[in-house]
Design a protein that fits this description.
- With 234 residues, the protein is α/β, with parallel strands linked by helices.
- It has a single domain, classed as 2-enoyl-CoA Hydratase, Chain A, domain 1 (Alpha-Beta Complex), CATH 3.90.226.
- Helix content is 38%, strand content 18%.
- The chain is built from seven helices and nine strands; from the N terminus they run αββαβαβαββαβαββα.
- The protein has helices spanning 2-11, 40-52, 69-81, 95-101, 133-153, 181-186, 215-233, and strands at 23-28, 31-35, 59-64, 85-93, 107-109, 114-116, 176-179, 191-193, 208-211.
- The strands form two sheets. Strands 1, 2, 3, 4, 5, 6 and 8 form a seven-stranded mixed beta sheet that branches. A two-stranded parallel ribbon has the order 7-9.
- Helix 3 runs parallel beside helix 4.
- The chain is globular and about 50 Å long.
Length: 234
Amino acid sequence: MRLLLLLTVLLVGCKTTEHAVNEISEISPGTIYYKGETSKKSVEEFEKLLVSSRNQIDTLVINSEGGDVMAGLHLGGLVHEYQLNVVVRELCASSCANYVLTASPHVLVEEQGVIGWHGGSLQPLYVPMEQPPEVASYIAKWQTAERQFFDIINVEQAVTIIGMMPGITEKRDSAMYSYDAQTLKRLGLHIEFAGAQTGMSASGEKVAQVFELEESVLNHFLMLNDIVSAELIN
């Protein structure tokens, strides 16, 4: 799940390893199945299929642990542009959660499916670290692109990093975090669950901790993020 590791990867040479997506195919008229990471090559392959299909594509079934953030933003942009319904099969995490789930007008998480976040472009504001110039430049471009993306889709950008904020990060017992259905709705997402929401994989491994945030608590975190983000912009 490379989003959490992105800063480390950049520090050792700004290189990422691009793995082939297991499958990108139109599994039924109007539905594309995307299995694998979000990489530049795979998202381009998805876009080619999306625009060249003889059928009007209206649904994306996805199983992805995330990957390259710029490719993830591109994929999310396509989901928003074409107003694709999204079905999560097994897992949608990291860049998949950040940019695909947030961009869709309707998301259905299949039974035993897991969604999870573990950071975004604003995470250096909450987890400071030394950054060489090339890394700082990359992060600045990422922050600009991500802010514009969330402005367009009208979803709270804070969804990516609430689990890293003071007051909640200390309570985490998993690398990834998610939010209950009501909190997701308040953040601007349109997600329903075919079964009980879970952070556990089908094999019983804890993948993400699901936080239930009261409205007042969520508002506190959103206000905190507004303050920190304003300092970044200024």
